Amino acid sequence: MNLILILLVLILIVVTGWKVYRFFTDGRIVDTDEFFKQRTVTIFYKTGKIQIGNKSYEVNQVTGIATNTVTDRNGRNAYHVTIELDDIRNPVHKIGVHGGLKTAEQFSQRICVALRKAGGPSFK
After folding, report:
1. CB atoms within 10 A of CB 34
2. Reported pTM
């Protein structure tokens, strides 16, 4: 019984640590000659691909980008960037953003710049 309790506590510590790590590093921006990465979005300049989570698409499949605010019942705002794709199975991808509306808008603009740099569509 004690062994099970110890294992459960260890799992809880690891999961909590992982969530804290992701919270503080998720918004980190990486921009090299090869790719742009922020949150779960990676845009590869030379190959013209965008990866959202574990799914990969051609940059010319992106049909829209928007910044959205959702207010819950308690009046708290949540911000996310929506990437629309020319894909019948997964046409809309929502990426949550911590840090407010300005942070979400900056993330959206960075995606637009990186898409153009990769040969994709131009969004303003």
Report:
1. 12
2. 0.76
